[in-house]
Amino acid sequence: MNEHTINTEEHRVSGERLVARVKELIHQGNVRRIIVKNDEGQTILEVPLTIGVVSAVLVPALVAIGAIAALAADYTVVVQKEVEEEAVAVRP
């Protein structure tokens, strides 16, 4: 039986690389949520990416991220990924 866990990663990126980095992360396929934070750690944008909603949410989200990228120099992209773990049978 397989179990799913959520891992969280943080990536520091410059404003000019923000959209490109978010696209790279989304193409990995197992991303469930992307959060963009400014230098002060305040959440600017949060995008849930569930299967089937990705295409509908992706274009407007990337437009918003592009507009945000023009406002400041550095951001933190927080990525929540679903990771499938195989359950290991424990023998007595």
Structural features:
alpha+beta, 92 residues, 2 helices, 4 strands, 42% strand, single chain, 4-stranded antiparallel sheet
Structure description:
The protein is globular and about 45 Å long. The protein contains 2 helices and 4 strands. With 92 residues, the protein is an alpha+beta fold. Strands 1-4-2-3 form a 4-stranded antiparallel sheet, covered by helices on one side. The protein has one domain. The model has no long low-confidence stretch (mean pLDDT 77). Helix 1 runs antiparallel to helix 2. The chain is 28% helix and 42% strand.
The outline comes out as globular
Q: Roughly what fraction of the amino acids lie in strands?
A: 35-45%
Enumerate the spans where pLDDT stays under 50 for 5 or more consecutive residues.
none
Topology order in helix (H) and strand (E) letters: EHEEHE
Q: What is the number of strand segments?
A: 4
Could you tell me the mean pLDDT?
77
Spatial separation of the terminal alpha carbons: 18 Å
Q: What is the alpha-carbon Rg in Å? A: 15 Å
- In percent, how helical is the residue content? 25-40%
Give me the secondary-structure category. alpha+beta
Biggest sheet overview: 4 strands, antiparallel
How many structural domains can be distinguished in the coordinates? 1
Give a topology summary.
Layout: E1 2-14, H1 18-27, E2 31-37, E3 43-48, H2 54-69, E4 74-86
Helix pairs in contact: 1-2
Brief summary:
This protein is α+β, with helices and mostly antiparallel strands and 92 residues long. The protein has helices at 18-27, 54-69, and strands spanning 2-14, 31-37, 43-48, 74-86.
